[in-house]
């Protein structure tokens, strides 16, 4: 009886692992789209959370993260950068915003479909008041969002 239970447990564990890996596999269409979009990417690391497919990679010594739908459609790409490397218009837009007194803790360039570029600045006033600020290429604040 114990051997039957053990066999069933092992079989169920195997089936669960097999079905889970089928759900969370990276769609070939995402891999193909990524290869076309970033042929020179290095250190490529894929992750599928069922809803989105994320790929972390390095391009021209810059760390980046692209996001695709579970159908393989490109949604956006984030590139790490520093505030000093942002365009002067974006830096000026932040300095003129009501958040200018906050500490900048992270900056990213966001590439979106239709050749749209935005800039995200994480600005913190204290441990509780933290915001993501999104700017366009002219330095206009598009929106802000609370972050943890």
Structural overview:
- The chain is α+β, with helices and mostly antiparallel strands and 148 residues long.
- The protein has one domain: Nuclear Transport Factor 2, Chain: A (Roll).
- Helices cover 27% and strands 42% of the residues.
- The protein contains 3 helices and 8 strands.
- The protein has an 8-stranded antiparallel sheet.
- It starts with a helix and ends with a strand.
Task: Give the helix/strand layout.
Elements: H1 2-23, H2 28-37, E1 42-48, E2 52-59, E3 62-69, E4 74-81, H3 88-95, E5 103-112, E6 116-124, E7 130-135, E8 141-146
Antiparallel strand pairs: 1-2, 2-3, 3-4, 4-5, 5-6, 6-7, 7-8
Main sheet strand line-up:
1-2-3-4-5-6-7-8
Structural class by helix and strand composition = alpha+beta
The ordered string of helix (H) and strand (E) elements is HHEEEEHEEEE
The tally of domains stands at 1
Termini separation comes to 51 Å
Unreliable segments of 5+ consecutive residues: 10-22
Shape: elongated
Q: What is the residue-mean pLDDT, rounded to a whole number? A: 88
CATH fold group: Nuclear Transport Factor 2, Chain: A
Largest sheet: 8 strands, antiparallel
